[in-house]
# Entry
Amino acid sequence: MKERLLIVDDAPENLDFLGAVLQDKYKIVAARDGEKALQLAGSSNPPALILLDLMLPGISGFEVCRKLKDDPATREIPVLFITGSVDFQDLQRGFELGGADFIFKPFNHLLILHRVATHLELKRLRAE
Amino acid sequence: MSTEVRSPFPVKKLKGIDVDKGLYRVGGNGQAYIRLLLKFARNQAGQSGEIRQAATRGEYRTVKKLAHRLKGVAANVAAERLQGAAQRLEEVCTADEQYPFENLEKKLQQVELELNQVISSIRTLESAAIEGLPAPSGRKVDPSFIKPLLQQLENLLEQADTEAATVLEKLSFCLQNSELGEQYSRLTVQISQYEFEEALETLKELRLHIFG
# Structure
């Protein structure tokens, strides 16, 4: 059975692209804002991994990550931030909040596939 | 990881788009690339108008934000000249708080030109795709056929599962040209925009029409 990924981005075009790259290997669930992302992550069928845009309307990506990591039910879900710029303060804050990695725009499909596979593998190893 | 072409793409060249690069970016999946391009044309058709309106109102931060977004979207589909034009427009809004209108106008015209070119190219692709499809049946909606698909669609929408778009495609021949065409179109737009909660509401409306 395919593992389930949650992609959170307010731009449908980015959801389209990431979905196109990942849908052959994974089941894709999508949200355009942080509230919906938290709701889906906390559901009875949570995602194995979350791709989370930093710039979201309402609750920011950082805040979504903080809430996920504060909740024992969602703490173990790896969060990969999506960002358009290499801002070292953002990178540092993202890792301090418990983010696992960053994916940069413009997207590279191979890097996305490798990073997602790596973090799912790390999660499996941690759970053993 | 392999980048070989795994599903066919109907044309070798599209003006304003680097097809080889675009296919590479989605791992050689021709069908996925076609879907991306068609959605690009549908969603970005009004984009230059929106940018121009913001510029006319003097809302340069909005111009910059929209140009930045267009740059990213153009990069996703390998529309490189458009990507460059959007980047130059973004930069002209970054350089200074005083925006010489002539300079902005030139950059904006370039974006309009390139965007129109890309959308025209994609429309030729769309025509080719439509020619390959069977003609719409025009049959009345058969509730026994449609019921399990609608149930499946509802389950997927409740979980924000993007496979909803695939199930909706299966429903297209029953619904697209039927008396429920308006609801079907609305559902298509909502699902393509990932507005799953709104799509659930439209689906309820659709079910009410069919099953009472």
